[in-house]
């Protein structure tokens, strides 16, 4: 899977989790950029991403991710 394909899939996950079809994420997207992305929704988002890609984030990864680009890096490292 390419980085671009991961982003295409992630956009759908973000749109579903936050119920907003206008969301488009990129490397620098953070919780500050998405309405409703609080700590509770972060848990829902992580669970949805894990399910969609068949990956598992460890707690250290979950708390240290600074932006969506880091999430994509972790996804790609687990599916390649």
Structural notes for this entry:
The protein is mainly α and 80 residues long. The chain is 61% helix and 0% strand. The chain is built from 4 helices and no strands. It has helices at 3-18, 39-53, 59-64, 68-79. The chain is globular. It starts with a helix and ends with a helix. The mean pLDDT is 96.
The helix-strand sequence is HHHH
Low-confidence stretches: none
Average pLDDT number:
96
The profile of the biggest β sheet is:
none
Percent of residues in beta strands: under 5%
Shape: globular
| Proportion in helices | 55-70%
Q: How far from one another are the termini?
A: 7 Å
Broad structural category: mainly alpha
Give the C-alpha Rg. Answer: 11 Å
What is the number of E strands?
Answer: 0
How many helices? The count is: 4
Oligomer: single chain
Features:
0% strand; mainly alpha; 80 residues
Task: Describe the protein's topology.
Layout (H helix, E strand, L loop, with lengths): L2 H16 L20 H15 L5 H6 L3 H12 L1
Helix pairs in contact: 1-2
How would you concisely characterize the structure shown here?
With 80 residues, this protein is mostly helical. The chain contains four helices and no strands.
């Amino acid at each position: 899977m390419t980085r671009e394909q991961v982003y295409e899939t992630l956009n759908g996950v973000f749109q579903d989790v936050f119920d907003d079809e206008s969301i488009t994420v990129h490397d620098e997207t953070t919780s500050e950029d998405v309405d409703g992305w609080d700590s509770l929704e972060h848990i829902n988002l992580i669970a949805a991403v894990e399910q969609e890609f068949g990956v598992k984030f460890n707690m250290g990864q979950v708390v240290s991710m600074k932006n969506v680009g880091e999430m994509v890096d972790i996804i790609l490292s687990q599916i390649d």
